[in-house]
UniProtKB/TrEMBL annotation:
It comes from Glycomyces buryatensis. This is Nuclear transport factor 2 family protein. InterPro entries: NTF2-like_dom_sf, SnoaL-like. Residues 13-83 form the SnoaL-like domain. It holds the Pfam family SnoaL_2.
Length: 124
């Protein structure tokens, strides 16, 4: 289920671009001073955030949006990603958005599928 709002529209546009391979376009939805908090650490600024996400995005085979909700200033999306190593990687992003730019994102993802896939492949 997806409800529409200004913030949600921005979050969905951003998600569509990075998951469909237009990473440069996706970055236009981020504020220059965006802050992203993830299980792997905190990334400040669009360049740091790009350095964190782009390597993963380059391995992405697909993404299925499960839900999206938002209001005028915040959005929450949940999705499942597919990579060659991890065919089912659940994730969610809670974003603060001002003037159609993501200013803060809290990204959570299940690390267990990746850990198990690396172990099965002999990758540590």
């Amino acid at each position: 289920m997806t409800a529409t709002s200004t913030a949600l529209d921005t979050a969905l546009a951003y998600h569509k671009e990075w998951t469909e391979g237009d990473f440069d376009k996706a970055m236009t939805y981020l504020a220059d001073d965006v802050v992203c908090e993830t299980p792997l650490g905190r990334f400040e600024g669009v360049q740091a955030f790009r350095a964190f996400l782009e390597p993963f995005a380059q391995r992405l085979i697909g993404s299925t949006l499960l839900a999206g909700f938002g209001d005028d200033e915040t959005a929450l999306i949940m999705y499942v990603t597919k990579t060659p190593l991890v065919p089912n990687g659940p994730a969610a992003e809670y974003m603060s958005i001002q003037d159609r730019k993501i200013t803060h994102a809290r990204l959570v993802f299940d690390q267990l599928p990746g850990v198990e896939a690396r172990k099965a492949a002999g990758i540590e």
